[in-house]
Each structure stands twice: as C-alpha cells, then as structure tokens.
Amino acid sequence: MTYSQTALDQLESGQLDDFKKSFQLALANDSDDMLYSLAEELYSLGFSDDSTTIYEKLLKKFPDDDNLKINLAELAIDKDDDDKALNYLSHVSPKSPEYVRSLMVSADLYQTQGMFEISEQKLLEAQKLAPDEPVIQFALAEFYFTTRNYRKAINLYLTLIKSGTLEMSAVDLVERLGVSYAEIGKFEQAVGYLEQIKPVKMSSDVKFELAFTYFNLKDYTKAIKAFEDLRDSDPQYSSLYPYLADSFVNLKRVDEALTAIQEGIAIDQYNEKIWQKAGQIATMANEDDLALKYLLKGREIAPDDMEILTLVSDWYISHERYSDNLKLLEPVVEDHVFDAHLAYNLAQSYQNAGKTKLAANNYEIAAHELSDNPSFLKHAALFYREAADVEKEKQYLKKYLELVPDDLEMASMYDEDSDL
C-alpha cells in the first residue's frame, strides 16, 4: 500500500495526526501520478490546502504543465485569492491544449467579480475554439441565463436539447428552457416545457414559473392549482399569494381571494405589496374599513411607495374624508413628489375645504395629464361653475362633452353658459 492510500484511509477513519505523517511521507516517496490522484481525492474531501501543496510541488517539477496551473487557479478561487488565480491562468499559453479550459475558469472568475462583459468574452473565445463542445455551450447558456439574457440562453439550450443532452451538471435543461421562455413572455412555449418536468423534481422557483405561466395564459383554474401546490410544499414562498389571490379574483371568487391574501399576510408581514393587494381585494369584497387598514399598513412599511399612497388617497376621496386626504398629501407636495392623479385628489379636497385658489391650482396641474378623463373634466367644470369662472367652466365642459356627448344635463349647462 502506498503512503497516499494509507493517508486517505487514515483520513476516512478520523486519524488526523497519523494522516499528517503519512501525507508528508507520500510527498517524499510516492510517484507523481499517485500524488496527482491524492490531490484530486483530497480536494473532493474538502482538504484544499493539502491539495494545493501537492499541486505546487508537482508544478515545480513540471513547470509547463498547464493542467496543474488551472487546478491551482481553481483552488485559489475557492479561497477568494483572485489575483493568485489570475496569475496562474495568465501563464497558460493560447497554444496549450488546456487553453480552452483556462478560458472557462477565467470566465467563472470574472463572473463572480461582476465583470460580466469580460466573462462573456472568455466564453465566446472558448466557443470559437471548440464550437461543438457541449460543456462550453452549456456554460455560455448558463451565463446568459444568470445574467437574464434569456433569448441567447434559449438558443443554446435548444441546441443542447436537440443533440440529446437533457441534463448537465445536475441542471435540467428542459426546465431552464421553460423558465427562459416564461421570463421573456413566451408563455405558450414555456408551458410546453415546464409541464414536462415531474413535480417531484421541481424546485419552488420552477413551480412558481409554471403557475405564473398559467396565470399569464389566463388559465386561472390551473394557475390556482399550481399556486396552491407551491403553497402546500413551500408556504414561505410569499410571492405566490398576490397571484393566487388575483387568480381567484379573475374567476370572481372574491371571498377566496381575500382568504388567500390574508394567508400571505400571515407569512410575510413586511411585504408592502401583499398589504396593497389585500387592501384592493378587501375593497372588492366591500370590506371598506379592512381595506383602509391594510393599505395604511402597506404605507407604514413603504412610505415612499407612490402606488400605495395613491390607493390610500383614493380611499379617502371615495369616502369623502377630504381632511384626511389633505393630511396625507400635503407633506408629499412639500417634498415635490407628485403626479396628476394626486393633484386631482388634492383639488377635490381643497374644494371641499373652501380653499378655492389651491383647488384651482391643483385642477390645472392635473389637467396636463387628465384632459381625456371624463370624471376629472366634469369635476373641474363643476368646480369652476361654483367659482363663477365661466370661461374655465366652458373650457372643461366642452372637452367633457366631446367624450360624453349624451350627458344631457352637462350639455344643457354648456348651452346656458354659451348664452351668457
């Protein structure tokens, strides 16, 4: 038995002190091939420092062995010593049979550093040198998948699948292809691939993609089943609950939608979008007080979220709580964060408070974007009628009647003003 084999046996039986002695004896006495095998075994067992020691010893004896340089580069990457890794890789000649492998390792290194352009260049160079090598096609596909360049990833996954490669490095290529199609909105293609994956092999992310695909195909019955399957297997996957609730809404099952989103609240109480969706669905269920409670909770979590702010403001307006709306929106005006819809809501609130000048100012701000909104135009016309500004009233009435010509009451009002 060689010292290398003795060292491995001692390591497996937990005799660490004896292992260290046998390891040193192996370094001094065993053949180069045996040491190389020992280094590989030690690396697989997590003893990277000992593996590095062997490779460094062998590299001194065989300074032109590029395979050793690349192995040492990989070990250096594992220890986050990127400079040392790059130094080893830089000494691999483009004429070397191992150059393509060095490009692959370099690409991984640059990707971990966030230098995606250089990483892609390395992979493309490797592909040019070995265009039919599946490992390179796979690495490039995974690079594009990871960097969300799904269209390029799709072409590479398809090439591999057509060649008969359905799995590589424990990655299901059919799954990757389905997810990629879903991510670019090609839901018809996505569902065909995602449905091929056995449920027991699906990760939570893939289950979500399948459910999300059904949702986007408007197959809400299947979407509900898929989202509920994900919920049952991974209830902490909080992103599912708003979509599950929306699926129920689209089937006009509002009570079940409210229950679903309330389950989401119980799972993730710090997700403002779940609170927002809960508020919207509570409104549909005619649970007005509950809707406000949910929306205010969402605003508490995300005070800068303009969508939630707008929903709270709309709630106050619809319930004629104009003073509450002013308390909500006036600080936003001071921060110069605003939009036309909120200006419209502010205008109505100031109008109710008898602050005519401020109301008029906000109606004019809103008019820049809401000139095709009948509700806004009607409110503005009535405001200016109340303010005795006939010209402004006629201006808004005219635009309103162009959109709603059969409103006889407003048409009569316009005729009255025209006679003045």
Automatic annotation (TrEMBL):
Protein name listed in UniProt: Tetratricopeptide repeat protein
Domain of life the protein comes from: Bacteria
Record organism: Lentilactobacillus rapi DSM 19907 = JCM 15042
Record keywords: Repeat, TPR repeat
Per-repeat ranges for TPR: 204-237
